[in-house]
Design brief:
With 247 residues, this protein is mainly alpha-helical. 50% of the residues lie in helices and 10% in strands. Bound molecules: zinc ion. The site of zinc ion (ZN) has 6 residues, from helix 3 and helix 5.
Length: 247
C-alpha cells in the first residue's frame, strides 16, 4: 500500500539537466516504483543500479526522518508494530518502523524500513494492524530484493541514460507485473495475520475502501481486485496455507 495517493507512474522517467551541475553529475533520472518513488541523481561515472537504488532509498529515509512523529500516536503505532513482529516466525533483520507526519501513507523503504503516517493511529486497531502487516509482508517476503533483481537484470552494468532509455518500457512492464503480485501477496499476508489475531475481513475492506483505486495503476492492482483476492482466501484454509504466515 505504498504511498497510495502520491505514487506516480511506474518507470515514469524524466531527464533534466540542472544548469549549475558539474558536467559529470548532469544526468538525472526519476524512476517511480511500486515499492517507493525513486528520485535518483545518476552520476555518469561507474555506478550500478543496485547502488543507485540503495542510495535513493537511503536518501528518502533520511528526508522522511526529518518529519518523524514523536507523540502518543507514534507510540500506539510502534506497539502495534512490535506486536506484529512478535508473531513472525522469523524476525526480519534490521526491520524498523518510522512514523511520520507526511507525505507518506504507508510504504516500505530499502526493504526494511516501514514508514507510516501518524494519522494511521486514529484508525481502529484491526485496520492499523492490516496496514502495517501488509508492509511487514513486503519485508518478510523479500519483495525489495526481488524488484531490485529485475532492475539489475535489465541494467546489469553501470547506469547511464542511453541504456536505461533503451530498456525503460520492458523494465516498466516487468516491474509492474512483479509489484502487482507483491501487492496481492502482502494483502494475503496481512489478512492471515489479522485473522490470526481475531479480526475480521471488514478491517481489510475498510483499508482498501480508504484508497479506492478504480482501476489498475502501474504499481497497484485495483482495490476491488485486491479485496476479491482476499475474499477468495476467506476464513477457512488448510493448515499448510495458514502456516506460511505463522498464524
Ligand atoms: Zn504494498
Amino acid at each position: 500500500m505504498t504511498t497510495i495517493a502520491t505514487l506516480s507512474a511506474l518507470c515514469d522517467r524524466l531527464v533534466g539537466r540542472p544548469a549549475n551541475a558539474p558536467p559529470r553529475r548532469r544526468a538525472w533520472m526519476v524512476l517511480s516504483l511500486g515499492l517507493a518513488a525513486l528520485v535518483v541523481a545518476v552520476p555518469v561515472y561507474s555506478e550500478d543500479i543496485l547502488s543507485v537504488l540503495a542510495r535513493s532509498h537511503a536518501s528518502r529515509i533520511e528526508s522522511l526522518t526529518s518529519r518523524q512523529a514523536h507523540d502518543e500516536r507514534a507510540a500506539v503505532l510502534q506497539r502495534d508494530f512490535d506486536r506484529l513482529l512478535d508473531r513472525l516466525p522469523q524476525r526480519p533483520r534490521d526491520v524498523s518502523l518510522l512514523v511520520v507526519e507526511g507525505p507518506v501513507i504507508a510504504e516500505t523503504l530499502a526493504g526494511r524500513v516501514v514508514v507510516v503516517h501518524a494519522g494511521l493511529a486514529d484508525a481502529n486497531e484491526g485496520e492499523r494492524l492490516f496496514v502495517m502487516a501488509h508492509e511487514l509482508g513486503h519485508v518478510a517476503m523479500g519483495h525489495w530484493s526481488e524488484l531490485a533483481g529485475v532492475y539489475h537484470k535489465h541494467i546489469p552494468g553501470e547506469v547511464n541514460q542511453r541504456d536505461t532509455d533503451a530498456v525503460a518500457s520492458v523494465l516498466g512492464r516487468e516491474a509492474s507485473r512483479l509489484v502487482h503480485g507483491h501487492e496481492f501477496a502482502a494483502d494475503a499476508f496481512a489478512w492471515r495475520t489479522i485473522r490470526g489475531l481475531g479480526y475480521g475481513m471488514d478491517n481489510a475492506a475498510a483499508v482498501l475502501h480508504m484508497m479506492p483505486n478504480m482501476g489498475d495503476t502501474p504499481s497497484h492492482p485495483a482495490s476491488r481486485k485486491r479485496l476479491a483476492a482476499l475474499r477468495l482466501i476467506g476464513n477457512d484454509e488448510t493448515r499448510s496455507a495458514v502456516a506460511e504466515t505463522g498464524n
